[in-house]
Write a structure and sequence with these properties.
The complex is a heterodimer of chains A (320) and B (107). Chain A contains six helices and six strands; from the N terminus they run ααββββαααβαβ. Chain A has helices spanning 2-47, 54-64, 118-171, 186-234, 240-269, 281-292; strands at residues 68-71, 77-80, 96-100, 106-112, 276-279, 313-316. In chain A, the strands form two sheets. A four-stranded antiparallel β-sheet of chain A has the order 2-1-4-3, with helices on one face. A two-stranded antiparallel sheet of chain A has the order 5-6. In chain A, β1 (68-71) and β2 form a beta hairpin. In chain A, α3 runs parallel beside α4 (186-234) and α4 packs antiparallel against α5. With 107 residues, chain B is α/β, with parallel strands linked by helices. In chain B, β3 (49-52), α3 and β4 (75-78) form a beta-alpha-beta unit. The longest helix of chain B has 13 residues, at 12-24. The radius of gyration of chain B is 13 Å and the shape is globular. The interface between A and B is medium-sized, with 24 and 23 residues.
Chain lengths: 320, 107
């Protein structure tokens, strides 16, 4: 389709150039005729005859590249630049100028031979060459543009393909799908943001795995104790009362753990509501320190400091 | 051969339960609730078997296990509520960490 369009353009350019050359030739012809007319009239006026005009007319033919014929008022050929019609009656319908003397008498007719001159033929060839070079030049430019566009598009889309591949890797669960940043500018920013996101996702995934494992551990410990104390009671190693008391403690622990998980889920979804009430921060701090004391290393002492002046403060009591 | 068993767990009820069963079988039971105490007792009392939890205050069970293994051939029984021994890989553990721990424990 593009080649057809280029061919059409080249054809119309060629046609247009030829038409312009024809117009130019017509104008040139008229100019030559006018100049020859003036020169011949001057010649005739100086001698009042056409005697010895042959050499000049032949020279005009050579200079104009056209055949020149000069006839007398009765259209008898005085000079033919190619000698063919000399002395004969000229009856052809060629472009011509009637030569009138200054007194208004007809002194002859100047005929301009038809057919392309050498210059016209050369100009037509030039028009064809313009069309030819236009067509093949455009075709070559088009091919080069297509190749360059393909290369440029490939270069421009390469980072996007890398990004898409990395997104697909992450979508498939491979959270280590980072992008190797070699570009600069907007894509580098995009790649950096993507890598940050991938890193955050990997961290979140690792945290979730550890969190689930820790939760499972925390739940499994009291469950194992419950199971163990039931079996111990069955085996007669502990009294039923002692077993029930321990099981009750572990059941309460499980209950608290499940409630904590529920609150965590609510906080995560942003739907956790806090019930504010007055509480004693010193007592809360002491409670926190006391709960950590068994886990402290031997030789270390846990203590609280700076809470004595705080009598009460607002807080979501159960969450403190 | 020594009939001493060292039971190490930060959960006191678990330790008490294990102790009940071991004593019924005639073992003398030593108890520890943190890593530092466990290491001290193991070195001082030289028990025949150590029942060792993984997650302990002070020193983690994994550290105690590798330390004791470099010092003696004491039998170590890992006791944990974790699904796997490896904390790095809570699911399927493809790394050498769990295998190393199992080898140190003598499993």
């Amino acid at each position: 389709m593009i080649v057809l369009a280029l061919g059409s353009v080249a054809f119309y350019v060629m046609q247009g150039a030829e038409q312009e050359i024809e117009v130019y030739d017509d104008l040139t012809e008229q100019l030559y005729l006018t100049r020859m007319e003036h020169w011949l009239l001057g010649y005739y006026t100086r001698g009042n005859s056409w005697e010895n005009v042959r050499a000049s007319v032949e020279e005009m033919g050579v200079l104009s590249g056209r055949r020149i014929i000069l006839t007398d008022p009765e259209d008898s050929v005085i000079v033919d630049s190619r000698y063919e019609f000399t002395g004969t009656l000229f009856e052809k319908e060629w472009p011509h100028r009637i030569l009138m003397s200054y007194s208004g008498d007809r002194v002859g007719t100047l005929y301009f031979g038809p057919g392309p001159t050498v210059a016209t033929a050369y100009k037509r060839e030039l028009a064809r060459s313009i069309g030819f070079f236009l067509f093949w030049g455009s075709l070559t430019a088009l091919a080069a543009a297509l190749v360059l566009t393909a290369l440029l598009a490939r270069r421009l889309t390469a980072p996007m393909r890398t990004l898409v591949q990395a997104i697909r890797r992450i979508g498939a669960g491979n959270l280590s799908g980072y992008i190797d940043i070699r570009e600069r500018g907007e894509f580098a920013e995009l790649a950096t943001a993507f890598n940050t996101m991938a890193h955050a996702l990997a961290q979140a995934a690792a945290f979730r795995k550890n969190f689930v494992a820790d939760i499972a551990h925390e739940l499994r410990t009291p469950l194992s104790n419950i199971q163990g104390y039931i079996e111990a009671a069955e085996d007669g190693l502990v009294s039923p009362g002692e077993a029930v008391a321990t099981i009750k403690d572990d059941a309460l622990l499980l209950h608290r753990l499940v409630e904590d998980l529920q609150e965590l889920a609510l906080a995560d979804s942003g739907t956790l509501t806090m019930a504010y009430r007055l509480c004693n921060p010193a007592a809360l701090a002491e409670k926190a320190v006391a709960s950590m004391r068994p886990a402290a290393r031997r030789g270390y002492r846990l203590y609280r400091q700076g809470w004595r002046t705080w009598d009460s403060t607002g807080g979501a009591g159960a969450h403190l | 051969m020594s009939r001493k068993v060292l039971v190490v767990d930060d959960d006191r009820k678990t330790v008490a339960l294990v102790k009940l069963y071991l004593e019924r079988e005639g073992f003398s039971v030593l108890q520890a609730y943190d890593g530092i105490t466990a290491l001290e007792l193991a070195r001082r009392e030289k028990p025949a078997v150590i029942v060792l939890d993984l997650m302990l205050p002070g020193l983690e069970g994994e550290t105690i296990c590798s330390t004791l293994r470099s010092e003696s051939d004491v039998a170590i029984l890992m006791l944990t509520a974790r699904a796997t021994l490896c904390r790095v890989c809570p699911g399927d553990c493809p790394c050498a960490r769990e295998r190393c721990l199992l080898r140190n424990a003598g499993s």
